[in-house]
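Notebook B, p. 112. Complex prediction, attempt 2.
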Amino acid sequence: MTRRLILILVPYLWLLALFLVPFAIVLKISLSDIELSIPPYTPQLDLSEGWEGIKGFFAALDFENFVFLAEDDLYWKSYLSSLQIAFFSTILTLLVGYPIAYAMARAPNHWRPTLLMLVILPFWTSFLIRVYSWMGILSTEGYLNQLLLGLGLISEPLTILNTNVAVYIGIIYTYLPFMILPVYSALERMDDSLLEAAEDLGCSRLTAFWLVTFPLSKNGIIAGCFLVFIPVVGEFVIPSLLGGSRTLMIGKVLFEEFFNNRDWPVASAVAVILLLILIIPIVLFQRNEQKQREAEG
Amino acid sequence: MPECKFAPWDDPNEKPLIQFRNVTKRFGTFTAIDNQSFDIYAKEFFALLGPSGCGKTTMMRMLAGFEAPTEGTILLGGRDIAPIPPNKREVNMMFQSYALFPHLSVWENIAFGLKRDKLPADKIAARVDEMLKLTRLEKFAKRKPHQISGGQRQRVALARSLAKGPKLLLLDEPLGALDAKLRQDTQFELMDIQEKTGTTFVIVTHDQEEAMTVASRVAVMDDGRIVQIATPDEIYEAPNTAYVADFIGDVTLFSGTAMNRAPDASPDASPVAAETPEVAAEAAPQEAETPETETVETPEAVAEIGVPAEPEAPVADEPAPEPAEDSAKPATQAPQGPQPNRMGLWLHDKVWARVFGPRTDIVRQLPPPSPAAATVAKTGTWAARPETVSAETTDIPHGGITIDWAEGQPPLIALDGPRVEDGQHVQLALRPEKIGISKTKPDAVNALKGKVIDIAYLGNLSTYHVELENGTMIKAQLANTRRISRRDITWEDEVWVSWTGTAGVVLTS
């Protein structure tokens, strides 16, 4: 009995310590007021005063930071722009990743471990270094422009760095493995005789793909899309390094509120809203995984 | 008999549906199919039987269009099918794994092929419902494949491959995934459906019992070649090589040198006949007849020899002959008087014999009973029991061959079989159910002494492993028509194994 209790307790304690407690702290700061001090906010909930403190907190509760977020269009524009960039980069990642995963699943058996290794290999290098090297590639004097100029394809260097195009390139590059792996695992599990059966029943190769392969990799596609979409919404490093001043992403705004404006309460409010937005896709993702497990069980 | 028998392969005017013309298939340096030519006729249930890796699946995949022959042509209805891709062939396949689409319901799976033909929706629905009814799946139409049992999945796969009404249906080990009991039921279901739809079926299997049960003809394959194509009973009763004999069912093979027996050989030439001279003399008038037909045609001979006589011509409607029927068959062919049918015989053996004593019909038609015949009448039984073998008459017809097979053992006598030269090396293949076993020396054409080493009790049958004096192992099989306590042969017993002159098959290759 105690053993079972411990087994159940461990993940819940983990969740409590690493998610709920930090979230409670962030939520508390988001309800505080900005102050020029250390830390830069006035605590509105002082538990040391006991019941009186809690009563005082509810008396002064005003959600003014959230009201501020709603009033200033910078924030909701950033949210929308983040969702939009995340949405399009997810689709682009899928378009690039699916053929790669498909080719890997069709490759001869003895090649597959090598190909999988090649997909995972970039993770062995620091993420920051990889993004920095993209700056070297995409800048006006970068390798890409040198190559295109050298080939005579363009006469003037292209401006890619510090635009949304660079952000998309960076996101697709970074998140590609998260798309390839679930799609590959769905395709690899598929029985080849299903395609032969489809052909035998009158399908051409292409219709067999649309009617059999694609629907059967649906769960892998959904999983991959969520794995890309969810972290990209809050992405900070890629837009701040590769994007320009006109690239609006909520991760960048959050960083600026914290470190440039030192407005912790507003920054915390931004983080709380971001989490609320992401809960929807996270729940959908979990439901998809659940459904897949049921179908297989 | 011929008019009701389905045997288009014997009819020279019949046009085959499928013709393999010198087909060879190589994968790299490996030859999977080696220059094979054969025909399959419309409405046939054709089985490709062989061990794994013998090329049977390759043969089927070439028919389906997933592989192309390296050399030679395959004709379907007179047309070369090489340029036709699998999705355009009037051939459908039922896959070993069933290959049901997991994301589609049973109904949608069956409709899949019909939708590709762009049929109107109502026609598709009608056809799918027809298929669901044929395979008794109406209740499961809305379920997904993972929500139904293995047997139901097998039927969905069958319904799906039949839905388009193909000229030819290929079945790749269709029952491999089912348990033994379900497999048996499904075999008969398959035969029913094949008959109802009139579709030509080609089945690939490594299970000889399955092939024998369902098929109208069986092609036994070995190492990329078809060794023999014949009806199941012919394959079993008249295998053309030791490989086929060994692959299909149990067999004991004796190798030795053949000597032709003189056509007018006196019964004294045989080692056993000498012991019963009075019976041999009595049988003498019958010697004018040919040895092949004698035992079958005269009821006297049946009664006298006592051991089950072998029907010479394979019987097409009975794929797996049972030993018990062998003795019944000659009796029913006898022209004299009304004869009991099989059920009558059974009733007599099981019930009436206890009250009225042994059946006497046949004995009554004999000339005044000889001492030997009287013994049969007293002990007479109609099934191939060990006791039957000990009937006290011997009558070895002339002709045939003797086979010297081991030092110190009497030569074996085989009365039929291919023409051989003196001194030629041959093998005699003997099915265990054709071998009798008894404690006393029987009066049979071939009788060898041995010791029971093992008894495999299978419920309805027992297989006795008998070791001869020179160490050769022989398997003899008996139907367990008696309760276990009444069987008297047990381990380590000294026994005689015996068989008739026509029980074995002489193989020259």
